[in-house]
Design a protein that fits this description.
The chain contains 17 helices and 18 strands. A hairpin with a 2-residue loop joins strand 3 and strand 4. The strands form three sheets. Strands 1, 2, 3, 4, 5, 6, 7, 8, 9 and 10 form a ten-stranded antiparallel beta sheet that branches. A six-stranded parallel beta sheet has the order 15-12-11-16-17-18, sandwiched between helices. Strands 13-14 form a two-stranded antiparallel ribbon. About 40% of the residues are buried. The chain folds into three domains: about 290 residues, Catalase HpII,  Chain A, domain 1, CATH 2.40.180; about 80 residues, Hemocyanin, N-terminal domain; about 140 residues, Rossmann fold, CATH 3.40.50. It is α/β, with parallel strands linked by helices and about 675 residues long. The radius of gyration is 28 Å and the shape is globular.
Length: about 675
C-alpha cells in the first residue's frame, strides 16, 4: 500500500477548493443567507390548519428538491470518476505543438470518467457492455477531452446511424425491457441488417465487455486524429491507454452474480483503490502514421470500425496518467462533467472520420438540454485552469459577471479587445487539408470490408477466449425471440468463422451454416488478454478463517501477501474477531453473507468453522467451490486443506497448498498474478 497522496495541490484542485463548502458546526440558513429557526414544520394557520403560501423557507426547500435531478445522459448514464495527473515522458515536439505533450516536467491535472453505455443511471455496473473511458486534461492552453472507450472500434461508420443504434440497444419501446442489456430482438435485428458492426460485435461478445475493474481495462480514443507540430507538419494518430495492472476480465457467471451482490462493484473498486493509496496508473500510447502513408494499408485508416494492428503500427508509450483523488461530490463532479471530442488544444486536430465529424456537433448539443443551457463550461468541474475571455454573454445559470459596455467583435470602445491571438501566441489554427469532392450522401468503397478485421480478432483469441465468445453469442441470441433474427445473425457471422457460428447456432436452435468462413489468416497477439501483464498488485483475497488458527504462520502469510501489494480481507461466519492459538486476533471484514466469493480475486482457506478443528460450514464449502468454478486461484494451509479435499479440488492448476511459509506465499502469489487458471477442469 502506498502512502496517502500528499503532493502539493495541482491547479485544478486549487480551483475547485474555492467552490467547496463544509456545513459542519454551521447555523442553518436559506439560500439567501437568512438564519432559520425551525426546519421540521411548515408554516400553518394554527397547529392543525392549512400551510400558508407565505412560507418562503418551505417553498425554497421544496422547489430545490423538486429540481435537484438533471436529465441523465442518454448513453453513458452509469458512470464514476476520479481526479489525477498526467505527465509526458519525453517531448513530442516532433509530432505536436501541444504544450502538455512537450514538457516532461509538467504535471497536467486530469479528470477521468468511466461508464457503461447502454444502461440507465441506476443499472448494474458488471453487465456486458462497452465501457466509456473519458479523460479531461486541464492544460495551460485550454481543456483537451479524449472521449474514448475500452474497445477501439465502434458499431457504425457514420454517426447518422447513431440514434438508430441506441434506439435498438436500449430497452424495447413497447415494454421498456430489458435494462442495460443487448440480449434482445431489436439490438440483434439492427446488427444483422447493419453488417458494418461485425468487428465491434466480436469485441462486445469477448471478455473485453465484462472488465474486472476500471483499473484493469484499456482505453482507446477510437477515432483517427491529427497531431500537428509547430512547422505545420501533420501525422495521423490514434490514442491508447494501457493499464499498469494489465487487462483483465470477469467471467460471465461471476459478472451476473455481482450484479446482484454489488451493483456498484466497479465504482467501489476504483474508490477503494484510491483510498488505499493503490493509485490506478495508465500509460498513454500513440500510433502514428505519416500523411504520405495514408493509403498503404489494407483498410481505411479513417474507418472507425477498424483498428490499426499494433504489429503493423506499433504503439509508442509517451506518458503516464495517475488517478490519486476521489470526487468530493458525485453530482457536482461526476454528473455535471461535460466531455466533448471537439475540446482540443493547438497541436491536436481532426480528420474526416465520418463518425468523429458528427460527434463534434452532438456532444455540445446534448449538454444544452442536460445541463440547462450554454454556460455548462462555467461549472467548476468543467472550467479550464487557464483564463478565458470572449464576447459570449447571458444564458441560463451564467456565473461570470462581465463588466464593461462591449460584447462584440470588432469594436473601438474597448480597443478591439478581447482580440484573436496569432498562431505564434498560441491561437488555434485548423490544419489546412486540401478538400475536393461533390456533395453526396455516400460512403467510400474503402469502408465496405466488414469482416476481415472481425476474422482477425477471432484468429487472435486464445482457446478459452474463443469459447467465451461462443458462449456470449449463445446467451445473447438465446434471449432473442425472433427465429428469423437469430438465423440472420448466424448467416452474417459465418463470414467471420464457421467454427464460431456452428458453435452458437446449435445452442440457439438455428440452422448451422453450410458455407462461408473467412480466408483471413492474420492474427494480432496484442488483442488477446492472455498476452497482457499479469501482476498480483491490488488483488483482493478472501481469507476464510475460524478460531484457534496458527497465529504465527497465518499472520506471516498475510504480511507477505501485503508486501506483494495484495489486499487480504478476513471472511468468517460472524463479524466477531477471530483468536489465534498465540492469543493474537484478526478483525473480520465480512461474513459469508456479506462477502461472497465473487467479490474476491482469490481465496485463502485457513479453517472453515468456529475453530481450527470444527467441521466446515456449508457456506465455506460453497464459497470455495464457486471461486474454483470461476477459475480463481485458491490457497490453503492447516485444516483449510481438508476443505479442498471435501470439495474435490486438490492437485489442480491454480490450487496451492503447503506448510512452508516462504514456498506457499511465493506459489500463491504467482497463482494470483495469473488471474485465471483456464486449464483447470471444472465439473
Amino acid at each position: 500500500m502506498r502512502e496517502p497522496y500528499n503532493e502539493s495541490k495541482n491547479r485544478k484542485q486549487e480551483q475547485l477548493e474555492k467552490y467547496k463548502t463544509n456545513d459542519k458546526d454551521k447555523k442553518l440558513t436559506t439560500n439567501q443567507g437568512l438564519k432559520v429557526s425551525k426546519d421540521e414544520f411548515s408554516l400553518k394557520a394554527g397547529e392543525r390548519g392549512p400551510t400558508l403560501m407565505e412560507d418562503f423557507h418551505f417553498r425554497e426547500k421544496m422547489t430545490h428538491f423538486d429540481h435537484e435531478r438533471i436529465p441523465e445522459r442518454i448513453v453513458h448514464a452509469r458512470g464514476y470518476s476520479a481526479h489525477g495527473e498526467f505527465q509526458v515522458y519525453e517531448s513530442m515536439k516532433e509530432y505536436t505543438k501541444a504544450d502538455f505533450l512537450n514538457d516532461p516536467s509538467k504535471k497536467t491535472p486530469v479528470f477521468v470518467r468511466y461508464s457503461t453505455v447502454a444502461g440507465s443511471k441506476g443499472s448494474s455496473e458488471t453487465v456486458r457492455d462497452v465501457r466509456g473511458f473519458a479523460t479531461k486534461f486541464y492544460t495551460d492552453e485550454g481543456n483537451f477531452d479524449l472521449v474514448g472507450n475500452n474497445i477501439p472500434v465502434f458499431f457504425i461508420q457514420d454517426a447518422m446511424k447513431f440514434p438508430d443504434l441506441v434506439h435498438a440497444l436500449k430497452p424495447e419501446p413497447h415494454d421498456g425491457m430489458p435494462q442495460a442489456a443487448t440480449a434482445h430482438d431489436t439490438f440483434w435485428d439492427f446488427i444483422a441488417n447493419n453488417q458494418e458492426s461485425a468487428h465491434m460485435v466480436m469485441w462486445a461478445m469477448s471478455d473485453r465487455a465484462i472488465p474486472r475493474s476500471f483499473r484493469m481495462m484499456e482505453g482507446f480514443g477510437v477515432h483517427t486524429f491529427r497531431l500537428v507540430n509547430d512547422k505545420g507538419q501533420a501525422h495521423f494518430v490514434k490514442f491508447h491507454w494501457k493499464p499498469a495492472l494489465g487487462t483483465h476480465s470477469l467471467v460471465w457467471d461471476e459478472a451476473q452474480k455481482l450484479s446482484g451482490k454489488d451493483a456498484d462493484f466497479h465504482r467501489h473498486d476504483l474508490a477503494e483503490a484510491i483510498d488505499n493509496g493503490d493509485y490506478p496508473e495508465f500509460e498513454l500510447g500513440v500510433q502514428v502514421i505519416k500523411e504520405d502513408d495514408e493509403f498503404m494499408f489494407d483498410f481505411d485508416i479513417l474507418d472507425p470500425t477498424k483498428i490499426w494492428p499494433e504489429e503493423d503500427v506499433p504503439v509508442k508509450i509517451i506518458g503516464k496518467l495517475t488517478l490519486n483523488r476521489n470526487v468530493d461530490n458525485v453530482f457536482a463532479e461526476n454528473e455535471q462533467v461535460a466531455f466533448h471530442p471537439g475540446h482540443v488544444v493547438p497541436g491536436i486536430d481532426f480528420t474526416n472520420d465520418p463518425l468523429l465529424q458528427v460527434r463534434l456537433f452532438s456532444y455540445t448539443d446534448t449538454q444544452l438540454i442536460r445541463l440547462g443551457g450554454p454556460n455548462f463550461h462555467e461549472l467548476p468541474i468543467n472550467r479550464p485552469v487557464c483564463p478565458f475571455h470572449n464576447n459570449q454573454r447571458d444564458g441560463y445559470m451564467r456565473q461570470t459577471i462581465n463588466t464593461g459596455q462591449v460584447s462584440y467583435h470588432k469594436n473601438s470602445l474597448a480597443g478591439n479587445t478581447p482580440e484573436p491571438a496569432a498562431e505564434s501566441e498560441g491561437g488555434y489554427t485548423h490544419y489546412q487539408e486540401k478538400i475536393e469532392g461533390r456533395k453526396v450522401r455516400a460512403r467510400s468503397e474503402s469502408f465496405k470490408d466488414h469482416f476481415s478485421q472481425a476474422a482477425m480478432f477471432w484468429n487472435s483469441m486464445s482457446e478459452p477466449e474463443k469459447q467465451h465468445i461462443i458462449e456470449a453469442f449463445s446467451f445473447e441470441l438465446g434471449k432473442v425471440k425472433s427465429k428469423s433474427v437469430q438465423q440472420q445473425v448466424v448467416d452474417m457471422f459465418a463470414n467471420v468463422s464457421l467454427d464460431l457460428t456452428r458453435g452458437f447456432a446449435e445452442a440457439i436452435g438455428a440452422a448451422p451454416p453450410q458455407q462461408g468462413g473467412s480466408d483471413v489468416t492474420k492474427s494480432s497477439p496484442a488483442l488477446s488478454q492472455e498476452n497482457t501483464k499479469k501482476k498480483p498488485d491490488t488483488r483482493k483475497v478472501g481469507v476464510i478463517i475460524g478460531d484457534h488458527f496458527n497465529g504465527e504462520e497465518v499472520n506471516g502469510v498475510l504480511a507477505r501477501l501485503k508486501a506483494e501489494g495484495i489486499n487480504p480481507e478476513i471472511v468468517s461466519d460472524t463479524l466477531n474477531a477471530r483468536k489465534a492459538d498465540n492469543g493474537s486476533e484478526l478483525e473480520v471484514d465480512h461474513t459469508f453473507l456479506t462477502g461472497e466469493s465473487v467479490l474476491f480475486d482469490a481465496i485463502y482457506v485457513v479453517s472453515g468453522g468456529k475453530d481450527e478443528s470444527s467441521a466446515f460450514t456449508p457456506d465455506a464449502l460453497y464459497f470455495v467451490k464457486e471461486a474454483f468454478a470461476h477459475y480463481k486461484p485458491i490457497g490453503a494451509t492447516h485444516s483449510g486443506k481438508e476443505l479442498l479435499v471435501e470439495a474435490g479440488i486438490t492437485n489442480t492448476p491454480g490450487v496451492v497448498t503447503g506448510e512452508d511459509l516462504t514456498t506457499f506465499t511465493k506459489d500463491f502469489t504467482a497463482a494470483i498474478a495469473a488471474h485465471r487458471h483456464w486449464d483447470r477442469q471444472v465439473v
